Amino acid sequence: MPKILLIEDEAAIRRVLVKILTEENKTYEVEEAADGLIGTEMVKDHDYDLILCDIKMPKMDGVEVLEAVKKIKPEIPVVMISGHGDLDTAVNTMRLGAFDYISKPPDLNRLLNTVRNALDRKELMVENTRLKKKVGKNYEMIGESEPISQIKEMIEKVAPTDARVLITGPNGTGKELVAHWLHQKSDRSGGPMVEVNCAAIPSELIESELFGHVKGAFTSANKDRAGKFEAANGGTIFLDEIGDMSLSAQAKVLRALQESRISRVGSDKDIKVDVRVVAATNKDLQKEIEEKRFREDLYHRLAVILIKVPPLNERREDIPLLVNYFAEKITQEQGVNPKTFSDDALKLLQEYNWTGNIRELRNVVERLIILGGPEVNEEDVRLFASK
């Protein structure tokens, strides 16, 4: 439940606002402060999703409170409450970082709309902060084989552009890694990268997940909610397993690509988005088009640049590099002594049929690190990595 702090010195106004926010809309928890000093201390000691703050107050006025909040917890949106004579000041607070202002006496619809919009903004800011931290992770493609060298070269050329990219290849080959590397090397690397696994989301919810929804759009839609396209604004959205997306959702994605606009489920209001789209699939989309399960026009919108990630069996010369990379990483994660792999062990691993590709190889390396000797040898591989 969103938590709101109301800072207002007039008790009558506080009662009205609390009644509107709690009785008219039972989804908010409201705490009160009778002046700016008390309110500022409460901000230091508690987490709030929104602050409603009067402008004219004793001890510490609303402008001072706003400036203090922006230093203490800048992610909290602040909505100013202005009397008629405070209107110019209220407008000026927008320049200082206030989300919006409402006038006294408060209009119910205006207040609730402002509160909903401010809370949506807070949710997006929190999500973007989380995603930017994830973007900070270093993604690296391990391998020196010809197919991997070609992919690296293509990424270097494509990443600085806004060209849409379609990544194809079997499960477990590293399509997600390619997508992250594209984003990391792009001009959008400072923005969020939002991942959507289209195969993991029920078809009836995929549109809401991608584009958001408004309150009442369907049974469980008890509040407005921003979608993944909005969360990715200024960055990249990665549509993994796009071949599993429903035709109705495909139509909306096509519109988003054509017009750089989306609309939330249940709303006819357009929202402009600035998003680079990277998609991936393990399916043959040409065959899916023939079977009328995938839109041909969407395919051509997505496949500006095609990157095919090869199965591990087609890049066996990379296996020793991958094994050593995973071994170092896994020993650090498990907190165990570093282990090496003998030449015979590496040679045997190169001969295996890797139907699960890189994902399967990593699992096998982890098993060998845990169960094998100080130096993993050929016998360990035969014992613990057998199919």
What can you see in these coordinates?
- 46% of the residues lie in helices and 15% in strands.
- It is built from 16 helices and 14 strands.
- The radius of gyration is 27 Å and the shape is elongated.
- The mean pLDDT is 89.
- Residues 141-370 form the Sigma-54 factor interaction domain.
- Residues 3-119 form the Response regulatory domain.
- This is Fis family transcriptional regulator.
- Keywords: ATP-binding, Nucleotide-binding, Phosphoprotein, Transcription, Transcription regulation, Two-component regulatory system.
What is the residue-averaged pLDDT? 89
Major β-sheet, in short? 5 strands, parallel
**Helix count?**
16
Report, as a whole number of angstroms, the end-to-end distance: 50 Å
CATH homology group of the largest domain: P-loop containing nucleotide triphosphate hydrolases
So, CATH architecture of the largest domain? 3-Layer(aba) Sandwich
Q: Structural class, from helix and strand content?
A: alpha/beta
